[in-house]
Amino acid sequence: MAVHRKNNIDLVCSIAELSGLFEKRASVGGFLQNVVDLVAQHMESEVCSIYLYDEDTEELVLRANRGLAIDHTSEVRMKLGEGLSGLALKELRPIRVGRASANPAFKSFPHVHEDAFNAFLAVPIRRSLKRIGVIVLQHSRPDYFDAHDAKALRAIASQLATTLENAELIMKIHDQGNGSDKRQNRGFRRLRGIPNSDGIAFGKAVVLGHRDELYASIVEQATESHDTIEDFDRSLRESVDQLEFLQREVTQILSDVATLIFDSHLLMLQDPEFTGKMRSAIEDGTPASQAIIDVVQQYVALFAGSGNPRVQEKVQDIQDLGYRLLHNLVQDMPESGSYADHVVIASDLYPSELVKLRAQRAEGLLLVSSGVTSHISILARSLGLPMVLCKDDAALEIPNGTRMIIDGFEGNIYIEPTNDITQKFQRLHYGLLHAAHEARDVPLRTTTVDNQRVMVQANINLINDVTPATQYNAEGVGLYRSEFPFIIRNHFPSEEEQYLIYQRILEPMKDHEVVLRTLDVGGDKQLSHLSDIEPDPNPFLGFRGIRFSFGHEDVFREQLRAMVRAGHRRKLGILFPMISSLDELLKAREVLSEVLQELADEGIQHNPAPRVGAMIEVPSAVDLVSELAACTDFLSIGTNDLVMYLLAADRTNERVQDMHKAHHPAVLRALKRIADGVGNRISTVSVCGGAGADPWMIPFLLGIGIRKFSVEPRQIPVVKDLISKMTIRESRRLVSKLLSMKTVAEVESYLGTS
């Protein structure tokens, strides 16, 4: 009889994170392989397999395996009730046998050399009575698996059920995309891309910059009865009404980044040089539809030829206006906006354009580019806009109106999908909505198995993120990235505008702490409207973070004033980014002290003593951490930038992205040095970078003493669940083990990430 070999809690919590399939950037096949590798490692099993149930053929299909001699897993199939695995699924019960080949129900597949494995444990994967699949363990030693193993495997199967159901659905779609559906629909094809913002989008293609085709199709609908001056005036009035409605609606939900984002549209409609030219041409006998097209094209050429990037950006506004006017001319435009029921395809995009697309109800975005800046991805995720990055320029030639599905989880683009594929993605979409709704039942307090209190807070990018943060019971805001209102607008937001934004972040958090980070621009977050900034030859090592604030002290002071005013009678923390020396921290504190004194002298209500923190994200800060800790109330480790600077690997550069690893031995040792340098003030340290939600890093961070994590709102349920299944004792053992390793390969082999 096998001996109970491990703490099964560790395995279950690791699988809990793997079950967050769509938090990953791996393929579905890669996810399933991660599962079998991890289970086999923790259960010390020579073989682990996952079979998923195909309802259409009533077959179990081997989808992932570790330990069997097999090239193509999908070649191994068995009917429901066939073999021990099929029997386990048919009867919806675990089957554990000491010598599988001696059991009359055993089915052998000679080409996989399964007979060498005696011990057999199969557990059905199900959701209620719905059959999803089977997870199987095998070992050469007879009677190897015991009741503890069966119990652990049942817990794993339960946690994986919903995700594996979605995985089977996606894999079937892929199978069809590579097979029979192509014969059924010659228009169907699939492009591969890189997922940048999760979600599934359905809609008709619209290629930004290819408006001529759309104009032509609208003009075809126009008759002589549409082309009078009266029709033009009606179209103009309707366009103004629609844009004013959009302006009011968007300002309510995205006031931090969307104030007056349609002002340029409205101003153009009121410009006598713009609409006046159209009216004059119509009065001279030009059909209204043609007059609109002619003037729009003149302005597009004028703006596109400008050397000012902000003027160039208005090209899209002009094209949107022409599209709207033409649609209203033929009375064929829904009031909600231009991009409802559309998937937008673009070769490049400003952040402000991304916000406008969301405001105009775009379903999803296909960005055809060689790279995408991190703030575009963050912004798309905060806006809930599914986005895929595609390097194939052929995507820009997709005809407008083509039916599409964007899979923001896997990075696939389906062009003219079959009805079957569409229906399956719709089922997946509704299933994900249901799962997200269920995830809201999250406990407020988080403790480890051995009763250590751990705080899980939210990273906030936009006001839009506050709602899911509160729904998932975030214990405050560990990081508010204040730069987005600066990046997206055409100007610096005023002190009053910022004050209102920060109020809307602070108020819903009530008595919880809220940490507002001062402006962190530079690197891949540029302010293109600031004329006195010359392009940095190396922006990540240039004029960014606190350096920018010192260089624009008027902007810095306004921001600090707005922050402490909004923090009146609130638990407010102010966080300074990119601190590389004690001198910078002391200077920032000095400016803050002066601002506090100014407000007191002016008699303006404010928080007179906000907690002050510094970001630890550059190597020099790691070495100065004890001095920085002595001069702050808290520290926040920004692991994304810290990893980048330690390893000289830009996470936005696709050629070195794979080198950007938080579990690199140098990073692990740096994190331990931070914890040791802070000493008994470790409780004041939080992790706000991506490592804080990484299942491989969370045990290590707990082990070095981190008790505060700040993660994206949608990651909160999984992170809380992970932590609640861990022990500090086991985490400390992991730290000791990992710190003894010298290579990334060693670490990955031990963690099971390779």
Account of the protein in words:
- The chain is of the alpha/beta class.
- The protein folds into four domains: 8-178, GAF domain (Beta-Lactamase), CATH 3.30.450; 187-209 and 339-438, Glucose Oxidase, domain 1, CATH 3.50.30; 223-329, Orthogonal Bundle (Enzyme I, Chain A, domain 2); 439-751, Alpha-Beta Barrel (TIM Barrel).
- Helices cover 45% and strands 16% of the residues.
- The protein is built from 29 helices and 23 strands.
- Strands 15, 16, 17, 18, 19, 20, 21, 22 and 23 form a nine-stranded mixed β-sheet that branches.
- Helix 9 (263-270) packs across helix 12 (309-329), helix 13 runs parallel beside helix 14 (374-383) and helix 18 (495-506) runs parallel beside helix 20 (553-566).
- The longest helix has 31 residues, at 147-177.
- The protein is flat, with a radius of gyration of 29 Å.
* Shape summary: flat
Low-confidence stretches: 16-26, 179-186, 528-532
CATH secondary-structure class of the largest domain: Alpha Beta
Ends distance: 31 Å
CATH topology of the largest domain: TIM Barrel
Count of structural domains = 4
Helicity range of the residues? 40-55%
Number of helices: 29
What is the average of the pLDDT values?
Answer: 82
Calculate Rg over CA atoms. Answer: 29 Å
CATH second-level architecture of the largest domain: Alpha-Beta Barrel
